[in-house]
Amino acid sequence: MKRMQYQHLETANASFLYWLSNYLFDVMVYTLAIIVMSIIFVVFSNSMNNSILAAWWELVVYPCGVSCDQHEMYPTEVNYKIGLALRRVRGYFCRRFYGQRYTEADQTGVDFDEECPNADMVRAIRVSKVYNMLIKTESGGQNVAADDEADAAVVNGNGQVVALDDVSFSVEKRDCVALLGVNGSGKSTMFDILTAKVSPTGGKAMIDAYDVTVEARHASTRYGYCPQDNIYFNDLSVREHLELFYRLRCCRSSAMLSEGAVIDKLMKRLDLFPVEKTAASHLSGGNRRRLMLALALLSDHASLLLLDEPSAGVDVVARRLMWRVLHEKRQSRNRTSCLFTTHSMEEAEAVCANAVVLLKGQVVWSGSIPDLKQRVSRGISISLRLDSSAIWNPDEMERYTEQIQRSLESKLSRTELERSSLPVQELEEAWKLCHDLLHKSGDTTAPTVSQQRNKDWLAGLRARFESDDSVPNVTAAIPIVEFVQEWLVQEAFIRLETQLLRDEMTTRSGEVVVPADLESARGSGTNTSGVYETSCTERFGLADVFALMEENKERFNISQYSISELSLERVFEQFQ
User: Fold this and answer.
1) pTM for the whole structure
2) Following DSSP, what letter does each residue of 470-538 receive, concatenated?
3) What is the pLDDT of residue 371?
4) How far apart are CA 555 and CA 500, in angstroms?
5) How many Å apart are CA 306 and CA 194, to the nearest integer?
6) Is-contact 303 338, C-beta < 8 A?
7) Of the candidates 553, 545, 464, which has an alpha carbon nearest to the alpha carbon of residue 508?
8) Where are the alpha helices (DSSP H) in 382-505?
9) CA 7 → CA 2, 141, 230, 244, distances in Å?
10) How remote is the C-alpha of 85 from its chain's centroid?
């Protein structure tokens, strides 16, 4: 029960140091208690009575057990004390042999109001967290992290993963702040530190003026926590979960009298009555998230909500229901502060007034959500697909194919099989022939742009066909028809980017239109899809973009297109 009450202990990756410190502490406490008890029985055996034994039990054994339980619940306290002892030993030897003491890094912040230290419900002061991950070494000598997620993490020179790097922010009382960031940015690590699951490598975090590392028990009484993972008893029903956790948090008899009313009200708000008697293991993913949120909201005395992606995996209806419940909680008589993580800008805007954006373990934005939207919300993504049937006009295909064949026949004596193929060493000359023929026919595409882009395309085309070594002693070649098709696609995109996106859209909006940094962002080979990014302005808004695309669909052979806001990942990349 106690481990379920403090969810941060439910992890299979607990540090060996935590386990060892707890084990040694238990052995020391119980061994000492047995020794003391044995001495008492030996020395005072003649004067022992039930009253003396009861008093001894109350004064010695019970406090030892409670203290042991608290240290098991919060291993960060033991870790901190061991680290403090080691620093003192190091300081002693440094002073003795080197004439100076070991000093800790500065943990004070300069961006907070030090005259009102209790004005913030949450305060992170230069918090850093470095994980000493195991590194596997391949035969080639390259270091590979044991965890696949380490590929996106920040790794320092020692092979350690830097989850948080000098992070400072605050959540004022009765305020709601969204902690935003892509996967691997450090959001969950920040929550692990706030809930005393792990200790920070540097700096400190405080909840209602309590240091969460060394005063974790006091800090835990100030918040309700909804973890990212669903943690529950498989055999207990929804109501039994709520009753159990309510009794663990509310020990007063007066609170017990209102238990049923409080639980019924919470279940009604989160629409949990239909699954009231269902075992947690049989709940759907959305209902499990509702149960986790209900456990976090259970205590009216908690002045802070820590919600780690509470709406992950739920449908739209359940998500909006959660938003309404959180809004009611914040507007209630005892207004509650809130810090929660999400991947949705829409959710952050619906629930919060302020936001903190993390990227690669660092704070890249801290301020109001309207200011954040003002900076990034004008970014749009234009996805389009060209009509291949219009690009590959049969007459045009035949004309360019015949020109290439005629040029090759004047140079080489070729068999019937070779006539339909173009050797890779002739690619550049074939492109020049088609390019000159296209511009001679009156096309207005800028030759400079075409030459610059097609140079990269020809290099990729040559590498693609030269890498095929399945048939030895045969010159690498590409079918002429396939070459013409790919070249026409490239010319169609050059014309689109030059005449529509640059001359029309960029000129009118003042914002550059660039291809997205994606593998399929721009047509390659016979792929006729493209993705571009730009920003709307006051004089050229979203409606103008749609109007421009509609007007030019037929002119540039656009079969379909879509315009959307930039994804959250693309938005955060703008902070780099």
Assistant:
1) 0.60
2) SSTT---EEEHHHHHHHHHHHHHHHHIIIIIIIIIIIHHHSS--EE-SSTTSS--TT--EEEEEEE--S
3) 79
4) 10
5) 9
6) no
7) 545
8) 388-391, 394-409, 416-419, 427-440, 447-466, 480-495
9) 9, 40, 10, 14
10) 36
Q: What is the pLDDT of residues 195-213, one digit of tens each?
A: 888 888 888 899 988 888 8
Residue 31 pLDDT class (50, 70, 90 cuts): confident
In this structure, are residues 454 and 445 in contact, taking their beta carbons and an 8 Å threshold? no
Write a three-state SS string for 39-75: HHHHHCHHHCCHHHHHHHHHHHHHHHHHHHHHHHHCH
Residues 6+ apart with CB under 8 A from 114: none
Under a CB-based contact definition with an 8 Å cutoff, are residues 449 and 494 in contact?
yes
In Å, what is the CA distance from 136 to each residue of 129, 130, 155, 156?
Answer: 21, 18, 14, 16
* Token pair for 138: 């391949």
Rg (CA), the chain: 33
Place of tokens 């207990």: 236
In order of 178, 316, 361, 373, 377, the CA distances from 568 in angstroms are: 14, 18, 16, 12, 10
What are the extents of the domains in the chain?
A: 2-80, 382-573
Instruction: Quote the CA–CA distance of 339 and 335 in Å, as a whole number.
Output: 13
- Mean pLDDT across the chain: 75
Rounded to the nearest 5°, which phi and psi values hold at 342? -160, 160
Q: How far apart are the first and last CA of the chain?
A: 45
Residue recorded with tokens 């020809």: 458
Alpha carbon distance 431, 436 (integer Å): 9
Strand order through the sheet with 210-211: 154-155, 161-172, 120-131, 202-207, 210-211
